[in-house]
Specification:
The structure holds two protein chains of two kinds. By secondary structure, chain A is α+β, with helices and mostly antiparallel strands. Helices cover 31% and strands 24% of the residues of chain A. Chain A has two domains: 155 residues, no CATH class; 57 residues, no CATH class. In chain A, strand 6 and strand 7 form a beta hairpin. Chain B has a domain of 74 residues. Chain B is built from three helices and three strands. Chain B is extended, with a radius of gyration of 21 Å. The chains are: A alpha+beta, B alpha+beta. Chains A and B meet through helix 1, strand 1, strand 5, strand 8 and strand 9 of A and helix 1, strand 2 and strand 3 of B. Strand 5 of chain A pairs antiparallel with strand 2 of chain B.
Chain lengths: 219, 106
């Protein structure tokens, strides 16, 4: 890898047109915290582009990768799963990252002694000394895979072909109601699982704080 | 159709695409916002000690229960990753060097 390319990646600050930025290098005064919409509440955005959250980029040395199969927590029936990539930031970038994050969220100065209050600290999800970049935590009951989806679709198609063959070669001879029920019948377990996920199964509050993998961040 | 929408939403939220940036150098900053269109997908798990670029959004939340109730936690929500460099496999280099030594001895 060329040194010039690596340097360009590390020193990249932000790009307003692409709504992308590097938290270790950008000016914290350009960042705002969303508070209007509940879905993107407290998300960082670039000033002037408050409609969507800022996509941040960081260069990391990967220490653990669970982006394919994920990690699970808890036990049945309350089993949760998340996917993550854990990585260590370069030392200087880490210091800048923490400083920018603390300034963006307007955290008070916290002395690293007995005078500090736990409520003034900002916690970050970490594994050892690596930051955890995670997806949302979802219920294991809502987990499904593309394999399930395609297998389900394949089974549905086979079933339709079978029903067609049983009913005769003419599609017109099949009653309309029968066709409808076939199309909207669950193709596989994946569909029913996905439906469960939509509302009650996701529990965003059960995250790092209840898994005991938090790291403290002193500002 | 609704079920399909829910499934696609689920896949969008929960899947983490990783792209292969080992052979193509991105034009910074222009291509950073077009990575899914520019780079091919990376197949398999990312080896330990690889150099990677992670794309994420940041928000905070306060736990409503548990030992850290009402304490602010920053969440780094990953969107995708880019593998820039993989560590060289030590076993293969050792094999190659031992082969060389064997040849020299002969």
């Amino acid at each position: 890898m060329e040194h010039r390319y690596l340097k360009a990646l590390v020193t990249f600050t932000y790009n307003k047109a692409g709504n992308v930025g590097n938290l270790s290098r950008m000016d914290p005064s350009l960042l705002g915290v969303k508070d209007a919409n509940t879905y993107t509440k407290n998300a960082l955005y670039l000033h002037g582009l408050s409609s969507s959250p800022l996509l941040c980029f960081s260069l990391v040395l990967v220490t653990r990768d669970n982006h394919e199969h994920g990690r699970s927590f808890g036990s049945e029936p309350k089993e949760w799963i998340l996917k993550d990539i854990a990585g260590v930031l370069p030392a200087m970038e880490l210091e800048r990252f923490v400083a920018v994050l603390a300034l963006a969220y307007d955290l008070p100065y916290v002395p690293n002694d007995s005078a500090r209050r736990e409520g003034d600290l900002l916690y970050l999800s970490m594994i050892d000394n690596a930051f955890c970049f995670t997806t949302s935590m979802v219920s294991k009951a809502g987990e499904c895979s593309l394999a399930d989806f395609f297998l389900g679709g394949f089974c549905l198609r086979l079933r339709i072909e079978f029903e067609k063959a049983k009913a005769g070669s003419s599609v017109k001879s099949t009653p309309k109601r029968m066709n409808t029920s076939k199309i909207f019948a669950p193709a596989s377990l994946a569909f029913s699982k996905a439906a469960v996920l939509s509302t009650s199964a996701r529990k965003p509050t059960l995250r790092a704080s209840e898994t005991g993998m938090d790291g403290k961040c002193y500002s | 159709m609704l079920q399909l929408t829910i499934l696609l939403t689920y896949l969008y939220i929960f899947s983490v695409p990783v792209y292969d940036g080992r052979k193509h150098q991105l034009v910074i900053p222009r291509e950073l916002s077009q990575i899914p269109d520019v780079l091919p997908r990376y197949v398999g798990g990312i080896p330990e000690h690889s150099l990677a670029l992670v794309a994420y959004t940041v928000n905070t939340y306060s736990a409503t229960s548990g030992p850290r109730k009402n304490q602010v936690t920053a969440n780094l929500h990953i969107h995708f990753g880019v593998v820039l460099h993989e560590p060289i496999n030590e076993s293969t280099t050792e094999d190659a060097s031992s082969d060389k030594d064997d040849n020299n001895e002969e």
